[in-house]
Amino acid sequence: MNTTIPHAGSILKNYVAGEFTASDKLFENINPVDGSIINHVAEADSALVDTAVKSAHAALHGPWGKMTMDERCALLHKVADGIEARFDEFVAAEMADTGKSLFQARTIDIPRGAANFRIFADMVKSQSSDCFHTDTPDGKGALNYAVNKPLGVVAVIAPWNLPLLLMTWKLAPAMAAGNTIIAKPSEETPATATLLAEVMHDAGIPGGVFNLVHGFGYQSAGEFLTTHPGVDAVTFTGESSTGSAIMKASADGVKALSFELGGKNAGIIFDDCDFDEAVAGTARSVFTNGGQVCLCTERLYVQRAIFDKFVAALKDKAEAIKIGWPLDEDTDMGPVISHKHRDKVLSYFDSAKVDGATVVTGGGYPVFNDVRDNGAFVQPTIFTGLSEDSKIVKEEVFGPVCHITPFDDEDEAIAMANDSKYGLAATVWTTNLQRAHRVAQQMDVGICWVNAWYLRDLRTPFGGMKLSGVGREGGVHSLNFYSEPTNICIKL
Ligand code: NAD
Ligand code: 6OD
Question: Which one of 43, 168, 182, 186 would you pick to mutate in the ligand 1 pocket, going by the greatest count of ligand atoms within 8 A of its CB?
Answer without folding.
Answer: 186
